Amino acid sequence: MTDSPEQVPHDASEPGAPLRADRRRRRSIAVGTVPSTPVRTGFAVTIGVVFAAGLTMAFASMSTVLMSITLALFLALGMDPAVRALARRGVARAWGIAIVALGFLVLVAATAAIVIPAVVEQVVELVESAPATIAAIQQSEWFRSLDDRTVVDLTRSVDAAWASLTSFSSFVVIAGGVAEAGAGVVGAISNGIIVVVLTLYFVAALPAMKTAAAELLPAYRRPGFLTLTDEITASVGGVVSGGITLAAVNAAVVFLLQLVVGSPVAALLAIAAFFITLVPLIGSVLFLVIGTIASLFIGPAAAIVFGVGYLLYIQFESYWLTPRIMGRAVAVPAVLVIIGAMVGATLFGLLGALVAIPVTASVLIILRRVVVPAQDARVTPEAG
Length: 384
Hints:
This protein is mainly alpha-helical. It has helices at residues 17-33, 38-61, 63-88, 93-128, 130-139, 141-149, 154-165, 168-214, 222-261, 266-276, 282-296, 300-326, 334-377. The protein has 2 domains: 69-216, no CATH class; 218-373.
């Protein structure tokens, strides 16, 4: 009795057998990838895509809130080293938080009381003195020399630009921009108040937040997690507080140099220098260009004085001031600082560039304390 063709086993040595086996394998894979209920699967995929798109839009609409929370958290981490320093001197943490919070509020109020009137006064002075400043620039020797050497009539071009700026249509546009800027100032003030309140809350609740995060892990991992988070928060706090201190010193130097060269907007440039130089390495070099160009409107000598003086300060800051202010903060290689600042600025603007440096420091700590020891412990290849 002969077997049916379905029961005859295929010999692996039979010609064409490997090809038929490969076809059967591919057919089984294709059948397995086709869902049994395509309508239900397609509906579920569509719901997932819509949910992901809605979640993305929700995060985009909450970007201002998320940025305020992130800024407040990093300011709290920057204030935490001061609280720890007071605790090492025998001050209770509650009193240390109160002292640091009071100092923070006094600093914010004093800065607003000093900066806002000076900025308003200098903006008004800049607007009032604009015609005389433009006329003085046109009568200066370097402008005349540049006008004689170029094909374009610079004097006529400047006069036409000023006439266009002072026309009625430009006034309407500027008025609309001023109204929009006023609304932006009101929003910035409200966001600033929220950031201050959240900062004070995060400073007080930082230990509880770390403990709550540790409770989500198994009990045997909590001590190591708390040690790692303490090291990360201390390092990030050192980076943030050190960066703010360096930016404040930088702004003071810019203010003094601008007063020396006779700039009418010294306070405005000092404020700009503070925010720009919060980004290490890149900020100082960038403001060297900005400050020198701004000083050029006073005269070539003023631009040279500011450029040389600020360049000398950058060298002093890099080789003497930064190592002493940053102290025990984790050392971040310069190339990672530049890459992190560029990526953060591209994604989230100035705040992203500021946050990128502490985040980079945190990642380096995790790599050095967790990933590298785990890899060093693997001295033999894994089985299988």
